[in-house]
Design the sequence.
């Protein structure tokens, strides 16, 4: 297993074509400080440029938390100017996760609150165990979700349900979160990471060219009217139709063998 550290708080572990992006600030329950945000952005830039990475799984080293959101202890000493200077740094970190070009999964246990839940929402799929507690409590401390929550949550569960959760700032336990569609897979307790990695491996067995194009079509087409969405889909199809992966996939199907994807 190949491992690379970004700053003090983010670790990248490569498991073949699946890459694990690990939040590693356990003393602060992975609260997102300025330094951690910079490390997350740098790690995502590295993964974006890595052609060997087909799927990314975000995990946590803390036994009772995925990420509790912004580092409010750090912000307690901030002036208004400090907060303004930090804003593009933290925003870049959430955007970096959202913009990863390959399928992404979050493995969630314990608390995933505020910015921590927004990191998970920036992923394509969320796997959670029964200890997970998710929510966007920002209005309870005088701000609003600022890592994409007001836009990502309604896209998952609809505008009215998202409004109720954001306006009440309530925390949602795992079983209810699964029922509402806040998380996609409910794993056995303590198995969120393993199940997310197993699902990632299944995804990674498919064409890397196809996976990237499918993600692009899903992301760009969401929210468009049907005709516009179909144009996005057609452009994505054209980008892969004459690829080496398409030729290999058809050949492998006809020869009844496992594809050896060129990734072109």
Sequence:
């Amino acid at each position: 297993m190949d491992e690379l550290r970004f700053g003090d708080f983010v670790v990248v572990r490569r498991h073949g074509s699946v890459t694990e992006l690990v939040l590693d600030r356990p003393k602060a329950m992975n609260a997102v400080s300025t330094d951690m945000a910079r490390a997350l952005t740098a790690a995502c830039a590295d993964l974006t440029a890595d052609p060997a990475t087909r799927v990314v799984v975000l995990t946590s080293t803390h036994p009772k938390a995925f990420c509790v959101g912004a580092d409010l202890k750090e912000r307690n000493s901030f002036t208004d100017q400090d907060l303004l200077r930090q804003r593009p740094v933290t925003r870049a970190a959430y955007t970096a996760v959202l913009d990863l070009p390959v399928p992404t999964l979050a493995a969630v246990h314990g608390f995933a609150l505020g910015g921590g839940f927004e990191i998970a929402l920036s992923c394509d799929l969320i796997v959670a165990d029964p200890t997970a507690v998710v929510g966007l409590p920002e209005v309870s401390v005088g701000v609003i979700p600022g890592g994409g929550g007001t836009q990502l949550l309604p896209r998952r569960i609809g505008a009215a349900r998202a409004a109720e959760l954001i306006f009440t700032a309530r925390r949602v336990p795992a079983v209810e979160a699964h029922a509402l569609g806040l998380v996609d897979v409910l794993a056995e307790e303590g198995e969120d990471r393993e199940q997310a990695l197993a699902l990632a491996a299944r995804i990674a067995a498919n064409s890397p060219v196809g996976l990237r194009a499918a993600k692009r079509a899903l992301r760009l087409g969401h929210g468009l009217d049907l005709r516009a969405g179909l144009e996005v889909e057609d452009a994505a199809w054209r980008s892969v139709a004459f690829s080496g992966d398409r030729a290999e996939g058809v050949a492998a199907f006809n020869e009844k063998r496992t594809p050896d994807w060129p990734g072109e």
Remarks:
- Residues 6 and 39 are 5 Å apart (CA to CA).
- Residues 80-98 form the longest helix (19 residues).
- The chain is about 45% helix and 15% strand.
